[in-house]
Specification:
The protein is of the alpha/beta class and about 300 residues long. The chain has a single domain, classed as Rossmann fold. Helix content is about 35%, strand content about 15%. β5, α4 and β6 form a beta-alpha-beta unit. The longest helix is centred in the middle third of the chain and has 21 residues. The chain is globular, with a radius of gyration of 19 Å. The N and C termini lie far apart (about 55 Å). The relative contact order is 0.13.
Length: about 300
């Protein structure tokens, strides 16, 4: 008889439960026998998505104190994914206020109630590079968790502050957390389309190391983070092993970032993001990756 999964029977709050990553997380955790409290702003049906498996479903604002207090009833672990996911579509103040208030509210209330561990969505935008209005590139490759940030938009600033919030919550209440600096995360068909456009114009990808992650692998990373023996508040980059374009990484860097230092060489299409922390702390390796035939840059 096989042993029960360590998350089986655990009550887990997932915010943004009916969103892109949240739906995949709910499916994966429920599949291991976890009890999911899902908190979303709007029902999945309104966004044209099927409702993920949840045994307690709530709809409301994660920045609202009473809503989050209700959602945390009986909760042992927290996965906080609710956020405005880009600087587009909303005024900068709204993006920053929504994301920062939401993260502080969820993490601080969870910690006050004795929750021992949270996982939350930070972003590769913590660097401030992807939407930066200036002609900027990373300080070095591969990008890692020590990379300095160049903040230029409200969304990037919100993710930077979210990580500070998690550190403060650990310092004050002792709740451990992992903040994933997610790259472009999507279902496989959307990644394929993104790959096609990036293949035609690889230059913008230099700001993100040409990284991506299948949403199913994002859910795997969350599962591993909920049971990892980490302490404190730890930021972690997660991505597929290889880039989303069919070109050798060294050639890409020679063409699009020739003056940026490299701390090591890259093999074939190896992603220009350091995944050491994801490997060593979580044992994470993406299972769903693009199959592309490597060819020279045109």
């Amino acid at each position: 008889m096989s042993e029960a999964h360590p998350l089986a029977g655990k009550r887990i709050l997932v915010t943004g439960a009916e969103g892109n990553i949240g739906s995949a997380v709910c499916r994966r955790l429920a599949g291991h026998g976890a009890l999911i409290t899902g908190l979303s702003l709007v029902p999945a049906a309104e966004a044209g998505r099927p409702e993920p498996p949840m045994d307690r479903v709530l709809h409301g604002d994660t920045a609202d104190v009473d809503t989050v207090a209700d959602a945390l009833e009986g909760v042992e672990l927290v996965v906080h994914l609710a956020a405005i996911p880009s600087p587009h579509g909303h005024p900068p103040y709204t993006v920053f206020r929504t994301n920062v208030n939401s993260t502080f509210n969820v993490l601080s209330q969870a910690a006050e109630r004795g929750v021992q561990r949270a996982v939350f969505a930070s972003s590769i935008n913590h660097t401030g590079l992807p939407f930066n209005s200036h002609d900027v590139l990373p300080a070095y490759y591969p990008m890692d968790e020590q990379l300095p940030s160049d903040l230029d938009d409200g969304y990037a600033l919100s993710k930077y502050v979210d990580e500070l919030t998690a550190r403060m919550v650990h310092r004050h209440w002792g709740m451990d957390s992992i903040g994933f600096r997610f790259p472009f995360v999507a279902p496989s068909e959307m990644i394929a389309r993104h790959s096609e456009s990036s293949t035609k114009n690889p230059a913008p990808g230099a700001r993100e190391g040409w990284s991506y992650l299948d949403v199913r692998d994002a859910a795997l990373a969350v599962e591993l983070a909920l049971t990892a023996p980490t302490t404190g508040s730890v930021p972690v980059y997660v991505a597929a092993d290889n880039t989303l374009v069919p070109y050798r990484t060294e050639e890409l860097l020679d063409r699009y970032a020739p003056r940026v230092p490299r701390t090591r060489r890259f093999v074939e299409r190896e992603v220009a993001v350091d995944l050491t922390r994801a490997r060593t702390l979580l044992g994470f390796r993406a299972e769903h990756q693009l199959e592309l035939s490597t060819r020279p840059l045109p």
